[in-house]
Amino acid sequence: MKIYLDGQLVEKADAKISVFDHGLLYGDGIFEGIRIYDGNIFRLDEHLERFEFSAKALLLDLPWSRAEINQAICDTCRANGLRNGYIRLVVTRGVGDLGLSPSNCPRPSIIVIADTIALYPPEHYEVGLKIVTVPTRRTNPAALSPAIKSLNYLNNIMAKMEAQQYGALEAIMLNDQGLVAECTGDNVFIVRKGRIYTPSAQQGALKGITRDAIFDIVEDLQIPIEEHEMTRYDIWNADECFLTGTGAEVIPVVALDGRQIADGKPGSIFKQVLEAFHHRVRIEGTKL
Ligand code: PMP
Q1: How many angstroms is it from 48 CA to the middle of ligand 1?
Q2: How does pLDDT run across 249-267, given as a tens digit for each residue?
Q3: Domain residues for 276?
Q4: Total structural domains in the chain?
Q5: Catalytic positions, please?
Q6: Residue 53's closest CA among 26, 31, 22?
Q7: pTM for this one?
Q8: Does residue 268 sit in the same domain as residue 149?
Q9: What CATH code is carried by the domain that includes residue 47?
């Protein structure tokens, strides 16, 4: 496997960065997870825009243009013959000293990994996930904007481990007010009386690229959708619930916190959305 590292395509075994890189020492850096379907990189420009916003929020000057990053991603996919898979774009603050200050890190490092992806086990797309709400809260925007896809994912990792302690593959994370924000790596949607609802960025949801695609898909399907505050109660009593994310795509949820959602089976709106999503990812996107 070839990895793109600072302008070179190198073998996986040679793709190494310094132990003084602040990405390692402090989680100081940013990333994107991107999918490629049948040679189409899904919403690459949207991912690169979000990436630039994350960089700007962290005062991390990217010394590459969007076109150069785009090229690096395409080159990495081609070098690995990857037409279906997952692309991880990472920029670290770069090599510095043991102090916190990025001013001693003259140059960020860029990494592109293009690999296959392990989705949730396939049966869960048929029968749905049973998930739980976990104690670890979504990052408080007053402390650190949850919109930044930084290399510090510790509270999401804590939440993931808490989910696993309860035998669940994903977890609902609440914000500081106790409202539903999102999951550890997925956005959450519910359906109630034919309308779709999802928490807003203000409530702690990452503005997911898949989430954005769902807004476009349901507009085409003429299903009303809106951002709305959501409590656990709203999910327990929803007609349907599903999650979206680059890795997960669109996956149904059939129980939360031991409460079955509706009849405990993936719903009809979920099925329409999933079908439309599968269609869209193969026709939309940056062709390799
Ligand atoms: N929330 C979090 C915390 C995430 O890390 C992700 C995955 N990047 C998502 C939601 C889903 O976003 P996307 O559709 O862009 O993958």
Answers
A1: 14
A2: 999 999 999 999 999 999 9
A3: 124-285
A4: 2
A5: 149
A6: 31
A7: 0.96
A8: yes
A9: 3.30.470.10
